[in-house]
Design goal:
CATH topology: Purple Acid Phosphatase, chain A, domain 2
Number of strands: 12
Order of helices and strands: EHEHEHEEEHEHEEEHEE
Protein name: Metallophosphoesterase
Keywords: Metal-binding
Pfam family, one: YmdB
Number of domains: 1
Strand order of the largest sheet: 4-3-2-1-11-12
Structural class: alpha/beta
Shape: globular
Organism: Marinithermus hydrothermalis (strain DSM 14884 / JCM 11576 / T1)
Helix content: 25-40%
Mean pLDDT: 95
Radius of gyration: 17 Å
CATH superfamily: Metallo-dependent phosphatases
Low-confidence stretches: none
GO molecular function: 2',3'-cyclic-nucleotide 3'-phosphodiesterase activity; metal ion binding
CATH architecture: 4-Layer Sandwich
Number of helices: 6
Distance between the termini: 39 Å
Amino acid sequence: MRVLFIGDVMAEPGLRAVSLHLPDIRGEYDLVIANAENSARGKGISKRAYRTLIEAGVDLITLGNHAWDHKDVYELIETAPIIRALNYPPGTPGKGYWVFTHGEERLLVVQVMGRVFMDPLDSPFLALDRLLEEVEAEYVLVEVHAEATSEKYALAHYLDGRVSAVLGTHTHVPTLDAVILPGGTAYQTDVGMTGTYHSVIGGETETFLARFLTGRPQPFRAAKGPARFHATELVFENGKVRAISPYIWEEPWTPSEY
């Protein structure tokens, strides 16, 4: 089973990157997952952003701490192939996991949110313990949407040998630490951002500079510019991950275009 996980899709450049490139490679994968919590103008998800991703070939969408920034999500999350963090309190709309069937094998995809420098949700460690006792699958892919690299690494080691892969999202900075841990679990601290890197983590550079130089709040504006597609490939075989590989594509462009 071949799976492609697309890192945080950021605003119009991110949607454009997915629309331009994913259809060309979609046939190589059994399942395509995309984090889209920043797909609608940089914060949250909208019906338009959802349709763009699905039409391009995305099978499953994950969210994050900006999950609720657009009211469209409340309608989408109840029926569409979208998951939010598992460790939200009971009663939160939507689902924290998804089960994908490929032949006779099942892949459990689950997202948890970190708590360090983020919202004080339930423990992602204990939430995953409970889920792994309740849901059985040949393979388990855990997305950790978190700020602190230490929390991501700790969770990966905690789960090593119990899940197939742990992939980090949220910081919008791709890391070159893709590895298979001693217990057999594949791990990468952050898949990276799908969007324009002519920015400050996807935001307009001038606005962020004004914030840092003045110390005063500034309105958020998503950056424009050439798109870059960041993802991670996973190959599942015989009960474990056989390979983990970062994947990058850049939109052809000339400076005059932007």
